[in-house]
Amino acid sequence: VTTYYSPWRWNPIRGEYEPDVEQVGHGRGEFSAIDQFRNGSLLLSGATGFVGKVLLAALLHHFPELKRVVVLVRRRRFATAEQRFFSEVLDSPPLRAIRDQLGEDGIRRKVVVVEGDLGEPLCGLTAERLTEFRGRIDVVINAAGLVEFDPPLDESLATNVYGVRHVIELAERLGAKLVHVSTCYVAGKRTGRISEDLSVAGYYPLRRDADDDAFDVDAELRWCEARVARATAGGTRRDRRVREELREAGMTRAEHWGWINTYTYTKSMGEQLITRTPGLEYCIVRPAIVESALRFPLPGWNEGLTTSAPLVLMIGDGLKNWPVRKDGALEVIPVDLVATGILTAVAATLAGRNAPVYHLATAAENPLLPPRLVAFGGMRARFKHKHRRDGNKLANLWRAYVEARTVTVEQLAARRARLHRGLDLIHAVLNLLKALFGHRLVGPYLKSLRATRRHIRQQEQTVDKFLPFMFHNDFVFETRNIRAAWDMLTDADRERLVWDPERIDWADYWVNIHTKGIERWIRPRQAKVEDS
Ligand SMILES: NC(=O)c1ccc[n+]([C@@H]2O[C@H](COP(=O)([O-])OP(=O)(O)OC[C@H]3O[C@@H](n4cnc5c(N)ncnc54)[C@H](OP(=O)(O)O)[C@@H]3O)[C@@H](O)[C@H]2O)c1
To answer: Does the reported pTM lie above 0.70?
Structure first.
């Protein structure tokens, strides 16, 4: 149980956290989220994902007044949308409590599962469903996205751009408003404070000013289509070479405009399609890097490797050299605060009191400095390896007593070069010994050296993927709009939707909640994948 100072208190009778009204403070009551959700009907995509599950759990838990949530899920080869919803979503830890509370029948009365895919026009909804829902959905919440940083360009476009186009069409056809989940990192390579007021249409990170019209989303999509057609002309679609070529093409094009990867480049284009749709009532919610839950549905809940999980596991396993900025903050946010932020934005949109863009981030109010993370992670690794009884004793001693440290990118490159030279030397010696004494004696050592090198290369690639967040960029996302929306709520709303990034005790959160959450929820899954 965490000692975290929180506006929620533990109710031992109900067995759950509840808001401590004294600490939540007073809202201005300019609109009421509870009233906006009362008898409302929402359509949610992305409910099988990390953010989507917590969002759905928060929606059902905090707003029993809701009439209906339509959940759009794609079918898999061997599972219908309905089967996926009941096994992957309802049976998952974030939703178990609400499932037990409402029962399966209660859930069926409130939640309608429809099969759909953002890759298809109108998200693949059947004509009957479209007729059934027309005029009866108040808001579409699009929490679906392809979160991989450097997938083949066409795959990223399919969900993050064309998928958004299909969501827009769907919202228009249903006569619904749209709340779209994007990412703060659409800002790209910039420094300083990133405003929520930057114009979305025509945006690209290297844009000089609002008159700079070099980036046009239609022209850009034509370029992308031509590039994809060129790559796929010679080979079959799933050809490995074609995939690699398109992976490279996406990253190069993103960097050309100043984005850090294909993911943020395509997410930005998705946003641009929304803002230029005449008559569409929308808002765009941009979370920073989403991390383990602070308290809801349970402290430390996490899934997947889209968060900082790989890094947390690597530092826990004893990786020592960390290329992080000393003077900038790392923009992360717990997933339950993301759910709170999205629901606040949805309520504001329903009330017609929304801003166009909401950043959901923490550094503007409560910065988390990366060198502290290295210290927290190092402490945890020291503790873990000091008490380990298994594994190589010498390696455990090294992991327990050699400090994790911050380095510059140049220092890291020099250390890597030295390490690889050393490994080359050992490789050469082992090859020589193999020639002298034969494969049977030396082969196992060579095999283990190869495995070590593979492991090191994987670690290096992971660290490199996170360099834009940890080292290169020094920015703070402004979060005035979500604070303003939260201030407009009623006191009763604020008891359900607690927005309090300023109160996070990062040391306690990182060591006792986030790291333990990753070790509990992610490590066993990762171990299973590695074993198989
Ligand atoms: N995780 C982060 O750190 C982070 C940070 C900022 C913003 N975001 C944004 O938050 C949203 C959710 O992210 P997440 O972390 O929850 O990702 P996630 O765990 O990978 O979940 C992605 C969700 O999108 C769905 N999806 C993807 N392509 C789809 C398609 N063509 N049709 C229908 N559904 C599709 C997935 O469904 P399947 O189960 O069928 O694959 C899944 O439900 C994304 O828009 C992302 O850009 C995430």
So the answer is: yes
